[in-house]
Amino acid sequence: MAQEETGKHHVPSTTSDRRSPAKDTQTSVGIPIVNDQRTTDLPSTRKRPSSPPRLKPPTFGNMAAPPRPGNGALRPPPSAASSLRVPATKVLSNALMAPTSSIMPPGKQVSRKVILEPGHSPLDWAALTSNPNSQLRGKDAPDNLIRVAPAQLKEQNGRKGRDAWTVYQGKVYNITPYVPFHPGGKGEILRGAGKSSDKLFMEVHPWVNWDGMLSECMVGILVNDEEIADTKSGGLDDMD
Ligand code: HEM
What we know:
By secondary structure, the chain is α+β, with helices and mostly antiparallel strands. The chain has 9 helices and 4 strands. It has 2 domains: 2-55, no CATH class; 114-239, Flavocytochrome B2, Chain A, domain 1 (Roll). The longest helix has 9 residues, at 2-10. The N and C termini lie far apart (113 Å). The model is unreliable at 1-47 and 87-101 (pLDDT under 50). Bound molecules: protoporphyrin IX containing FE. Protoporphyrin IX containing FE (HEM) binds at residues 94-95, 98, 100, 111-113, 175, 182-184, 188-189, 191-192, 197, 200-201, 204-205, 208, 210, 213-214. Keywords: Heme, Iron, Metal-binding. Belongs to the cytochrome b5 family. One of its GO terms (molecular function) is cytochrome-b5 reductase activity, acting on NAD(P)H. Residues 1-85 are annotated as: Disordered.
């Protein structure tokens, strides 16, 4: 009985299966034509094993396997989103993308960053500034903040054993400890030694947070000569 059931599904019966489309391929005497694809792998239902047919895993016989994308490579088909992606390119640092100087024409901007010595990364500098024992104001500055006259500023140019001081937004900073940490190199930052760095700094990297990086290096404020003459001690505390 089970075999007859199987025959109904896989091999058209020559007598009773009127639903089978194979009847169109029967000969005039009702013999099925065996090159029908559905029957070539199962030429005879009587040769099938007696196990229940529904438990048998599906078989494709000699049917062709479904086509694979990409010549069989195990790669998913491209998604719609992939066409929107930016092609992979080398990541540029913000310094390469940002103008190195406002006077440089577009397209000629190149990074002037230097390779810093080991132990002189921005993180190393951050660690140094967070250590209260670092004495970043230098040997030429007293413990308290001072008024700095233009003449005194000029002397603090980093030469003859003196620390290099510079001015930014009216405040005087000792930049000597930061020099080996400066990504733009020693020569660049020392261009502002003994004078104001406002213009140079703003030309090169106005986005850099000067105060955040050099607050521990602050020596005092720049005053004119008259203001110095008015105050004998020179200490900022005396102004109050
Ligand atoms: C006279 C003053 C200064 C000059 C002329 C100068 C010049 C330069 C130059 C030429 C570069 C390389 C820019 C590049 O090609 O990418 C640079 C980078 C840099 N400078 Fe200065 N600098 C000065 C002062 C300072 C100061 C005082 C600081 C810290 C407050 C500082 C922080 C930096 C930083 C963080 C970079 C790296 C910027 C980046 O990642 O793109 N510079 N500087």
